[in-house]
Amino acid sequence: xxxxxxxxxxxxxxxxxxxxxxxxxxxxxxxxxxxxxxxxxxxxxxxxxxxxxxxxxxxxxxxxxxxxxxxxxxxxxxxxxxxxxxxxxxxxxxxxxxxxxxxxxxxxxxxxxxxxxxxxxxxxxxxxxxxxxxxxxxxxxxxxxxxxxxxxxxxxxxxxxxxxxxxxxxxxxxxxxxxxxxxxxxxxxxxxxxxxxxxxxxxxxxxxxxxxxxxxxxxxxxxxxxxxxxxxxxxxxxxxxxxxxxxxxxxxxxxxxxxxxxxxxxxxxxxxxxxxxxxxxxxxxxxxxxxxxxxxxxxxxxxxxxxxxxxxxxxxxxxxxxxxxxxxxxxxxxxxxxxxxxxxxxxxxxxxxxxxxxxxxxxxxxxxxxxxxxxxxxxxxxxxxxxxxxxxxxxxxxxxxxxxxxxxxxxxxxxxxxxxxxxx
Length: 424
What we know:
Layout: H1 4-9, H2 11-19, H3 27-63, H4 67-87, H5 89-101, E1 121-126, H6 139-143, E2 148-149, H7 150-157, E3 163-164, H8 166-185, E4 190-191, E5 197-198, H9 200-205, E6 224-225, H10 230-234, E7 241-243, E8 249-258, E9 277-287, H11 292-309, E10 314-318, E11 330-338, E12 343-352, H12 356-361, E13 364-366, E14 374-375, E15 377-385, H13 386-396, E16 404-405, E17 419-420
Parallel strand pairs: 4-8, 7-13
Antiparallel strand pairs: 1-10, 2-3, 5-6, 8-9, 9-15, 10-11, 11-12, 12-15, 13-14, 16-17
């Protein structure tokens, strides 16, 4: 959500900022609706003033026995109050806010220009792709011999679902539990167990509604399955006023995520890269405005640590204007090298939303020693997507016989097991 004061201060600059994201101009319409609201408020205030002034005159006329004058004044009061009732400033405010709610966040100045992912900037690369003495296979080619079952999942639920059995299911569980422990014990995040179903206001607060409704699974009673634990975690502070001393607030959750993948027809149809249901460890931070840029760097390093400890080859990307998500002011993507695909694929996305979500949620804090309040800044990141981490481990640690070496950090979570082998 945008501050109408920012729009009014420099409409041309606001539209120019939207144009960076290929969004059309909106300042004029937002100001027109706000002007209608202001005019309606003025009508309402004037009506109250008129009623107060004329009420005294009505009393004087009645006391003097001038009933005709009293009736004339009463009619004037009624006309003023009828005009106030018709003014409906709330309706104009709602229309203004509905428009502002459809507009993406404004980008940080250092976000590079560009229309799509081809303009994203590589900031850092960790490690180098391994040279294999054989042609590396993709995860689904390896997995089908180890209990990765797409056929049964398809019969149970349809496309874009996967069943994992045996050691592969345990490896996925190990990844999630290890990541969660890393972020809570070493990175200072508080573990949370969150609802998987949330209401409309919660989805609106983090920006999934109204723009992305087609990407969500909605229940018959009007609730939504969460697309990421970011949604409930960030909404912990909705309609709250926090003390500055409680900041930063750092939260994490390992949860299932549900996405309709409405715009992904024909993309990644084989394997488990793009699923309707998947596990993810989510990181959320809530900070004072002055601290959010540094927190963004810290959060991204926390996600990078996961990939480094797993021994994966990864890189950090600064997303360009055209590839930055709706609610983000700046985003880093972490990509891993998948030997089977011979491609870089996103495994984590860490975003600073600044006060964009906080305004939608009315989430504030009170600076120390201050009387007033300010909007919080919110950040979110994957720490990381468990299914994609499983894919990366499988493809990176594969051997010529189809077995998979288990990274050392995961072996304590696998009962000391060092290798997964194809079923005989």
